[in-house]
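User: I'm writing a short methods note and want a consistent example. For DYW domain-containing protein, I'll paste the sequence; you return only the structure tokens, no commentary, since I'll be parsing the reply automatically.
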Amino acid sequence: MSLRASTTNRYAFSFLTLISRIKNQKSSLSTFTFQIPYANQDRFTEPTTSPSQSPEKPHLVPADNMITKPSFGNSRLFDQRPFSDIVLSNKMITQYIRAGDLNVALRVFQNMTVKTTVTWNSILAGYTKKPGKLKEARHLFDQIPQPDTVSFNTMLACYFHNSDIKTARIFFDRMPVKDSASWNTMISGLSHVGKMAEAREIFSIMPEKNSVSWSAMVSGYIEAGDLDSAVDLFQRAPVKSVVAWTAMITGFMRFGKIAMAENLFKEMPMRNLVTWNSMISGYVENCQAEDGLNLFRTMVEDGVKPNPSSFSSVLLGCSNLSALALGKQVHQLICKSPLHLDTTVGTSLLSMYCKCGDLEDARKLFFEMPKKDEVTWNAMISGYAQHGSGEEAICLFDEMRDKGTKPNWITFVAVLSACNHAGLVDLGVQYFDSMARDYGLEAKPDHYTCMVDLLGRAGLLVEAVDLINKMPFKPHSAIFGTLLGACRIHKNLELAEFAAKNLLNLDPTSSAGYVQLANIYAAMNRWDHVARVRQSMKNKKVVKTPGYSWIEVKSVVHEFRSGDRVHPDLASIHEKLNALEKKMKLAGYVPDLEFALHDVGEEQKEQILLRHSEKLAIALGLINLPIGTPIRVFKNLRVCGDCHRATKYISAIEGREIIVRDTTRFHHFRNGICSCGDYCFCLLRRQINDIRSEDYALWLHSANSAFAHRRHESWDKKSSMFRIGDRLEEDNQEMTLEEYQKVLGREEEGFASTKG
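Assistant:
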């Protein structure tokens, strides 16, 4: 399919028409009656309030029957003022508990002259919401003068929230009175940790099952991945709650049964926001983002107000479609909603801009956000990494630490990725080593994959294999795929065959493994080996993932495949490319026939290269997008070396900024230079042919040292290296390491004198 205009027009609607449907709401700390479905306790006396007794008639507790007062610091308002109004005090405690401020709630509690069971239960519920407070919660529970069923249920929930499943079961069995909430708490708690056999046992002996019981079991089976059992229980349920319906929709979407989820959604007698969100996120996760965007529009038109999850899903859909224009419309919608300052929504917006190639707007949004959490910092660092801005990524990482936000394992994936894309080998190794030493973080497979890619691209293939052998867990297929890609860059056939063998042993259906190996053979003109690999794919029914590129023009996504023959504008596209080819060759461009992986003549290979999908998409952008507008092209596979080289020439000839995103990163082409500095293709090493492997490692160390010591200076040694490489390429010259270092020294001296 070459043109998705008909499909895309279904989601190319204007979100601006929906803005008026979302009205501003004032968020305030409102009072509420605290009800918790879970309960726990170690007090096994008969409760003074029966299950049928209303908690609105609490038992009064004298002021002298209080727990030992803890120290809360200096607080004149709470430490020196007695609270005699029971109703008002209970409301205050509830408000602070709801806001997550347990300390202030405890101060109010401590200064109450009279306490009711409701008061004690509210504080106990506050402890339940705080992980790691099990000991304090149990101590408080033991001091409740007359605990009721809510007290027991809340304590039971506290055990589950602190993962003390064994004690929770003992506590439940010894409870003097159990109501439906007690049983449901056990079922939900066991289901949450995947103990479905025990949950089913409790469910089977439960005296009276209600909709909550059935919903908890259905949800538990869905979370455990047992769709058949979930369907069986759902069909048998006498009363199906919205929760159960929504759980089933989530399950069908998770297993890719989209049609069944759609049918269930249509049959639902009543939907809530969670139901809508499940459908929208399900569409997005199943690569049907257009349908997710359409459903989001329908939801808003029906008067359902989006929450952070809604916006996160729809923005992820925009990211997957690379639909920046639609993402900006969603941004305008958010600005008119009460969630415009929400950190989760802001982070989703930030991620959308990064993934759609608009790093500048992402940067502006990041610095304007009033509150940032670790996810926000990670998103921005990852964005810099994707766009090849290694220096900015590492500087932001430093700022993150300086401002007291603790990095997590995802942070280091982003940092290592930034070092990888910038070719900062030494710094990458330092950060990798610092994870366990300085932060107590254990390296995960993703970190090892980044390191193998970092070492492999730098030509340190032996070191990459050594790292794989030292991994504390069994290597996964992705790490061998990464090694195989590095072997292709450096034409190391022996290691390539080793990597491909291990990759295909772990994942026999991996088309990427076969294709990469075939490409290496093709680059070395071993066409008999290429035929053998392709025959093996055919015998094992492995289908190659087709490569395609797409570009958004006026809210319509145009998709191209290599050698496309069906796009309606192909005539003008080919005319544009033919004209560009002549200009590029006059400027010194020579097609890299190594990337024409067919056993045909040179002229045919040149035509094949000229019809690559990314070149077709770029040509369409040049024809249709106004001058001054960046051209953003996206590809589902890695951009080939010839297209990368050609795009540099096109950006200079046309005077246009061209942004290309492939599976690994963004490439920003301006005035004939790419932001990656050609490091992704290790072209500089090919140009400096006299550098031996050990000298090349020394050269890389020099680049890393320059970066480390000049992080905040405008002179970029790495950029100078690539400028020298470009000049060598233009003059078709070679250079020894000693000569190269002298030229680099002159560049640095020139910068110093200019700065002075």
